[in-house]
Amino acid sequence: VQLQASGGGTVQPGGSLRLSCTASRFRLRYWGIGWFRQAPGKEREGISCVSGDDGSTYYADSVKGRFTISRDNVKNTVYLQMDTLKPEDTAVYYCATDRRRACSLDYSGMDYWGSGTQVTVSS
Fold first, then answer.
1. What is the C-alpha end-to-end distance of the chain, expressed in Å?
2. N or C: which end of the chain has fewer CB within 10 A?
């Protein structure tokens, strides 16, 4: 089971990026998939997830209203659209799953992690 996160980069404040999480060897649609981030010197933070049950989505307060998580079952990909980016969004972003249908923002329970992708928001 491998997850791969991509789409990071450097943008100015107020800009947008779209991250992608793809998987090999299993179908993402059946599992809850979360996006997490870790800034230098800070604890890893769960920011958004989408469930494998009914596609319910959840967001941390820090990103609510600015980020949107979605799932494309045909492409076997989960996206994180990030708009109105702020310097405090700068971090390495990861996708992960605990192989349950329900999703969770608790990083300690995740079993499988994708490689991180760096997001830098700077003028």
1. 38
2. C
CA neighbours within 13 Å on the CB side: how many for 14? 1
Determine the residue type at 34: G
Tens-place pLDDT, residues 12-42: 999 999 999 998 888 888 899 999 999 999 9
Of 62, 68, 117, 114, nearest in space to 87 by CA:
62
d(CA 47, CA 36): 5
Q: Could you give the count of Cα atoms lying within 13 Å of 60 in the half-sphere of its Cβ?
A: 16
Chain-centre distance for alpha carbon 21? 7
Contact assessment for residue 87 and residue 13, using Cβ atoms and an 8 Å cutoff: yes
